[in-house]
Design brief:
The protein is an alpha/beta fold. It has 16 helices and 7 strands. It comes from Flagellimonas lutimaris.
């Protein structure tokens, strides 16, 4: 390997590490915000829902597409929502293309006959996908406030009573609640998804919202002021994460968001890796698309402070961290050989300490979010250590798949909105086998993921002849992560 190539590899490797370090510092700042946050919900002005004059009209939108397995559960649950029937409307925005349409129509008819104001709304085409369905429903919505739930969400009966009152503050455009997980302990895959989402819904959402930084409506389990949606330019389907897009446009227009960590809305996590892949791809590509679409507006905005701009840029770059992590992983083996070939470049490897420091920062940050939900006993801490390194390994294993998504987003390559199949999994006894919405195709990335598993096995072996074990733990986690993703993809097919 020539010295010039070595310097290029070092430069790219160091730049990626530096970006990861900045990201971890941003997370640390959010942790400080999170820990310093004093609940001020009691101080906020609220509607008195005991006074009929103060009860606003609410529309609940249920955007669905081929949800045979969870439709009955969803409609039964939404029918139990406690709110005056004269002030509540439910729109079932059904873009389905299968037989579930007939069953849904029948169930909606039955609920309508009980006195519930519920409509089954069908479109001629899926233009704009979920954003298009929400936008079309909005045109005829009676409510001043629009609550949105995906098909796998099960809000408590008093959900509207806990969220609607905060809209008395006329500057609030959105109230978002924390996601819960009804099948958290179903498998290793669901546990690590719950772990990552819990960090987002505690550390990130509270950490940003408590200081007035931009947060995002999470696509579901939240409620919008209809005026805010229109003022921000309405739903747009030009990114795969229409929720993040509209959130930033609304906050750039000075609308405030209210995040309620104490209001949990249970939902179902994907239990099969192909479903998790499609969800991860959509979220990560959509994040990159929104960076491309919105970052300049954030940077040049004259009405938001520098710190809010910094956190906004880092937020929009969230998914791009996978690209940085994958770059560091891929170049770590050449770096190992550079270190042992060019002795005079040894000082460069001090930069590796940035990655170790970043990992320690994230370990500390995620512990505080984990214990806020799971508890802080010694046993919980031991479980946390195991879960953190399992999560870290599997996240590394997803880094190729998610990096492809991020690159497509940054390069402007358009793709369809691929929904995440739902399973109606409530306990370990339930099975996903036979679900007709599952893809039977193997991901083309699997071949590369297998090759990367072998590549990092070689990285582990390289430590022996070079007598340099500094990167061995990293290569071990990469080997296990890519192995997990490869073998789960191979075996988890319907």
């Amino acid at each position: 390997m020539g010295l010039a190539i070595a310097y290029i590899i070092i430069a790219i490797y160091s730049f990626a590490l530096l970006l990861i370090f900045f990201y971890s510092l941003a997370q640390l700042n959010l942790l400080v915000n999170y820990l310093g946050y004093k609940k001020r919900n009691e101080e906020a002005p609220k509607f008195n829902l005991l006074d009929p004059k103060e009860i606003p009209f609410v529309t609940i939108q249920l955007p669905i597409y081929n949800e045979e397995y969870v439709m009955e559960r969803l409609l039964e649950n939404i029918a139990k929502i406690e709110y005056p029937k004269s002030k509540l409307e439910i729109q079932v925005l059904d873009d389905s293309t299968d037989d579930s349409v007939i069953e849904t129509a029948q169930r909606v008819k039955e609920l309508h006959e009980t006195g519930l104001d519920i409509q089954h709304i069908r479109r001629e085409n899926r233009k704009g996908f979920k954003a298009g369905a929400l936008k079309e429903g909005l045109e005829i919505a009676k409510g001043d406030f629009i609550a949105i739930f995906d098909a796998d969400f099960l809000p408590e009966a008093d959900w509207l009573k806990k969220t609607v009152p905060y809209f008395k503050d006329e500057e609030i455009g959105v109230v978002q609640t924390r996601w819960g997980h009804i099948n958290r302990d179903y498998s290793t895959l669901t546990r690590i998804q719950a772990f990552a989402l819990d960090a987002h819904f505690t550390l990130e959402q509270v950490g940003r919202n408590s200081k007035g930084h931009f947060i995002n409506f999470n696509g579901t389990a939240g409620i919008w002021r209809k005026e805010c949606i229109f003022d921000a330019g309405n739903w747009e389907g030009d990114t795969l994460t229409e929720d993040l897009d509209l959130s930033y446009r609304a906050q750039l227009k000075n609308w405030k968001f209210k995040y309620l960590e104490d209001v949990e809305t249970p939902a179902e996590l994907p239990v099969v890796i192909s479903a998790a892949r499609s969800q991860q791809f959509r979220w990560n590509k959509g994040g990159a698309e929104n960076f491309r679409k919105t970052v300049w507006s954030v940077i040049t905005s004259k009405n938001i402070p520098f710190k809010t701009k910094f956190h906004g840029v880092m937020h929009l770059l969230n998914s791009s961290m996978f690209l940085c992590v994958f770059t560091v992983a891929l170049l770590s083996i050449p770096m190992l050989y550079i270190k042992n070939t060019y002795g005079h470049l040894g000082w460069v490897f001090e930069v590796t300490s940035f990655f170790i420091l970043s990992t320690i920062i994230l370990f500390v940050c995620y512990w505080f979010t984990y214990k806020s939900i799971q508890g802080s006993s010694f046993d919980n801490f031991v479980d946390y250590i195991k879960l953190f390194f399992t999560f870290f390994s599997v996240a590394l294993g997803f880094s190729l798949h998610n990096s492809v998504a991020v690159l497509e987003g940054h390069l402007g390559k358009r793709s369809e909105f691929v929904r995440t199949p739902k399973f109606n999994i409530n306990s370990i006894k339930d099975t996903w086998k036979g679900n007709k919405y599952l893809t039977t195709k193997l991901s083309p990335n699997m071949i590369l993921e297998f090759a990367l598993m072998i590549y990092f096995l070689f990285g582990m072996y390289s430590a022996i002849p070079l007598n340099d074990y500094g990167l061995f733990p990293f290569h071990l986690m990469l080997f296990l992560g890519f192995g997990f993703v490869f073998f789960k993809s191979l075996t988890s097919k319907a």
